[in-house]
Amino acid sequence: MTWLLQRVLDLVDIIITWFNRRRYGALARQVGRDPDDRATADGRRGLILVQIDGLSHKTLVQAMDAGALPGLKRLLERDGYRLERWWCGLPSSTPVVQSGLMYGNNWDVPAFRWYDKESGRTWVAKNPRDARELQDRLSEGRTGLLEGGSSYVNIFDGGARLSLFTVSALGGSRFFENVRGVSLVVLMLLSPLRLLRAIAAGGWEFVRDLWQRLAARFDTRVGRRRRPFSVPAALFQIFASIVFRELQTFGVLLDIYRRVPAIYTNYYGYDDVAHQLGPLDGETLRVLRGIDARIHEIDVARRRFADRRPYDLIVLADHGMSPCTSMKERYGQTLGELVASLVAREDQEFVLDEGGSEVDRSDADARFLLAELEGIKANLAPRGQKLVGVLENLLARRVPAEEVPEWDLTRHGDIILRNSGTISLVYFPLTAQRMDLSEIELIYPGLLRGLEEHPGLGLVLGRQDGQAMAMTVRGPRHLNDLNDPTINDLLDNLPDKALVAGQLTRLLSFPSCGDLVVLGRWNSRGQTIAF
Description:
By secondary structure, the chain is α/β, with parallel strands linked by helices.
């Protein structure tokens, strides 16, 4: 009886494989690349990278124990996969990790958002223009990991031939070059079972999310996280957790059949929900179960089409999460308000910029537009040239002179903060150059001491004569001097102090790093203060 059952199962598997080959072959031809294209049959093993955004090693193990990741647990227990810790580096953010993986280069990416003192421009990794320019710099002279492959829902594309929902490929000509991305959406809509599953899951998710947001308004438990009751926010949650997840999985399955050499897909729905509700909340674990099911689909397709191209599958995370409390909630003021209180004692006309709006880039945009107008002016009729002249005059009023003095002490009261979670970069725009700690102390007496003494701040870092320094109870000390007991105290509760000190020293050497780097305080349980 067992022999007969096994033969029946084998026959069913053969029929399913035949059906999927015919189905994916037809879909691939619709996309525009023949699945039998000999250029893809180069004999090399392929690579599939699946990123679960924001999932730490510790949380992964806890989620497995809670039954939220049965597929990954099966890979570990039955299929010989290994679970490995890895150090994602500092700062621990998606653009830093992905640029390192895709190009072997994450130099001068000091956080998720930062400020360029020389140009007066704020960079934000999720802004398409910023991501595109950053990718061009990081990839110069390098071959991307995804050359000729596919990128789904990433910050950078790694040289991929197809980039769908990838930030650096959004907007401009790059979007229109990737026509297959639009075709993929259409094909997804023509896949009835997957479409019905996405609609059903999306509708249920919408109702659940709205109900939980409404219920949370009446939840009086101490420390309970609350999300605002918002229909647009609930709809966005559907796209993050359902629609994008189905589209990118469908794309990966099709790419496996097409023998695409390298595929990188990022499931970021977990990161989005975990930031709001916590890494192990019931709703967060539910999102993980959905991601786990999609990874299982990818693994099944990888095995089923192994004769076309064998693939190595790597499931990774770009960073983890720490339970945190905002500085505002814990101490009644933001970091910017603290800085203002320390500086305003000396300067009553203090101006703080703790945001990261597009206004910071307006001068650079205006200069770019002026150059473009000048280029097309000669090709216009006289009437058009007059119109361009009027526009140039209007723009010229917005553009400050490019030549600025080395020091502009009239900006003594201007301080710019760029916050990214538990790290804040502090800039003093008196000069386009990085300021030493001694210069900061001279112009803002008492600021450094006030920051160092605040109970919500764990590290206050800067540079002096090119050396990485940390503010301590005994004043500034060399960050890499681990024989100094005050430095050891600052790095308490960290498993590898030398590694952390080295990474922070590298961060402080980045040209775009702040004049000061401030990190929220942490404790032995991993809890931290965020900005």
